[in-house]
Amino acid sequence: MMNNILVTGSRGQLGSDLVVALQRRYGTTHVMESGRSPRSEESKLFPYKVLDVTDGRRLEKIVKRHQIDTIYHLAGLLSAKGEREPDRCWDININGLKNVLEVAKSERLKVFYPSSIAVFGAHTPKLDTPQMTVTDPSTMYGITKVTGELLCQYYAQRFGVDVRSLRLPGIIGIISYNAPPGGGTTDFAVEIFYAALQQRTYTCFLRPETRLPMMYAADAVRAILELMEADLSAIKVRTSYNVAAVSFSVAELVAEIQKHLPEFACEYKPDFRQAIADSWVCTVDDSKARADWGWHHTYDLSAIVSDMLAKLESLKREQGARKRAEGAEEAEGAEGESTTNSTPHTPYPISDRTTHYAPLIPDSRLPTPKIW
């Protein structure tokens, strides 16, 4: 059976890597990206639809017209932005999910929903947080994630919707060298790499001793794919599975980066995000995911830092070479303007995107893409 996949919020940090993995598995024509922003130059090379997930009719129209059978629902407002705009956070995170679940119910779709460690709160055990535990978040983002988990369980039990979910930790990955992510409490663990390479210094919005569960994007993508491809009988949890990889403090991350960049320095100026981080857990027990569908992580802190720095250095060189080439083309075009019409340059060639993201997903862990 052909898989026709819709990814909402596909241009976010996790979505960018997940889309590439899905395209490699199922073919680019079977993976449709969507987002609230208009089609970019890059998106013209791939199936893409403008979609506000709070618009249920628009979502249903896309699903029916393109015979979608699986939705990876990544659209949402993150923790820090959610505190600034709580009403909007609720609208996007809850009403958007409700729309996805409704169309999944009527069209018999399979759904992935990302929950978060933000579901945990002040009364949750901080160490080895169990699968079944107190979920009493203090942020609007966390509240929407707990509500989302319960909605998923309800639709699974009441209507038979095959919706699967992971309580993801902080994700470390690459979007682009010039556009690091924004809006999450764990963003420091991505921003710090860009700052280390560009300025050799970083001002962190969390205290040095702050310890949080984290995961490399390659592991997160693999966890999602393995969960979605697991046999239906293996899925025992219909709220959201705990998944874990590494847990480290900000100071430990700084020390690991300094092994590669000894001159790198970090100062600490905690802001409102410190209170959010303090409400979260330090380590998570994911034994249920490991037992039910065989989850295991690959990247430890050392491997994450080495790979991130290498990828960003490579990307920086590629972008520098491209700018120099574009400058040469513009100069050549200007010289011949009176007699020649130059061909417009596409700023995001397809080779750039596959080169950029594919290395985050090691070839040995992905099967040969299916040919339809």
TrEMBL record:
One of its GO terms (molecular function) is L-threonine 3-dehydrogenase activity. Keywords: Oxidoreductase. Pfam families: Epimerase. The keyword Glycoprotein does not apply. Residues 320-372 are annotated as: Disordered. Residues 5-243 form the NAD-dependent epimerase/dehydratase domain. Its EC number is 1.1.1.103. The keyword Oxidoreductase applies. This is L-threonine 3-dehydrogenase. GO terms for biological process: L-threonine catabolic process.
